[in-house]
Structures
1.
Amino acid sequence: MRIINLSENNSVLKHYIKEIRSVKIQKDSMRFRRNMERIGEIMAYEMSKTMRYKPEDVKTPLGVAHTEVIDEKLVISTILRAGLPFHQGFLSYFDAAENAFVSAYRKYKDALKFDIFIEYIASPNLDGKTLIITDPMLATGGSMELAYGALLTKGKPAHIHIATVIASQQAIDYVASHFPEAKTTIWAAAIDPELNEHSYIIPGIGDAGDLAFGEKL
Ligand SMILES: O=P(O)(O)OC[C@H]1O[C@H](OP(=O)(O)OP(=O)(O)O)[C@H](O)[C@@H]1O
Ligand SMILES: O=c1cc[nH]c(=O)[nH]1
Ligand SMILES: [Mg+2]
């Protein structure tokens, strides 16, 4: 399984990661959402370099240019609700992609223990397609695993890209051992060392859904 940590190289991506982490800057929810989207755009561009291409000739006003276009059927999926701005970043780059949505939420039994519930899925057929699952936070990896299980009821993808902004090292290890080794690639903008007792990523960013869309009851 390939694990690609985009923070291993310096780029402007680090500015956007810094801004979503900053306790001052992240309070501007419009900027937070736009930064999530920008990270999605950059990750989509990096991902596009690893895809299969096919030749395609295009007629210009003065002749014919030999070009290449992506030769994979892409489905961009996300886990509601925190994933929406990140998903939009991918969709801005992959014009022809189909889309899928899965809901997942933590229902706390007490301050520390929670179950994850999936109640909604809308997806095209996934047989033979490249499935990109976008979710900005990969904390325990539980939501990703359950969302993937739900998506598999819609077909068997040829390749799976797990795309995340901040992952814990624990979740990277969890996903690596629960997803098909030969056809999964994990993409992270940054990998953080630990989780706290509430299974939030440390240092992380806090609650991505609340930062993007406001606190929920
Ligand atoms: O790896 P895990 O331990 O499962 O945690 C990560 C999940 O937590 C966040 O969503 P959350 O449950 O906060 O829902 P929200 O998008 O509605 O805020 C995030 O977007 C992931 O889906
Ligand atoms: O750190 C975390 C963990 C789960 N969900 C979040 O939004 N942040
Ligand atoms: Mg949340």
2.
Amino acid sequence: MKKFVHVVGAIIENDAQQILCAQRSKTMTLPNLWEFPGGKIEKGETAEQALTREIAEELQCQIIVGQKVEDTTYEYETFIVRLETYKASIVQGVPVATEHAELRWLARHELQQIEWAAADIPAVRKLQR
Ligand SMILES: Nc1nc2c([nH]c(=O)n2[C@H]2C[C@H](O)[C@@H](COP(=O)(O)OP(=O)(O)OP(=O)(O)O)O2)c(=O)[nH]1
């Protein structure tokens, strides 16, 4: 049976209405694909707690979590992911790529310029409507 992971991703928008996109490194699963920063929900955590923790670890900044945007389950070749995405705003710090290959701020109409992880496509489409 395929491994199942429950993941939260942050859709962080800045004052210029750009969204923070994060490129997975070449050594991670789904290498070089772009995603919303975040990660797996650990036992006993709410989605909001997991997202706040992951962003502090990965980007070294503090966020407040807002509205849910999308909830998608996608079956990759080797695992199944349930990705919940939430709007979020940075309340302290400037994002630093401690794990990602690159961070990029893109306007909504520019989001299709990069190659997203498949599970992210419904959320990306919603942002472009
Ligand atoms: N953080 C994040 N992960 C995503 C997104 N879309 C998507 O398919 N994923 C996948 C990639 C990972 O396999 C998993 C998230 O786990 P993680 O953030 O702990 O990633 P990881 O590389 O440290 O873990 P792993 O896959 O090596 O076990 O969900 C997304 O938008 N954000």
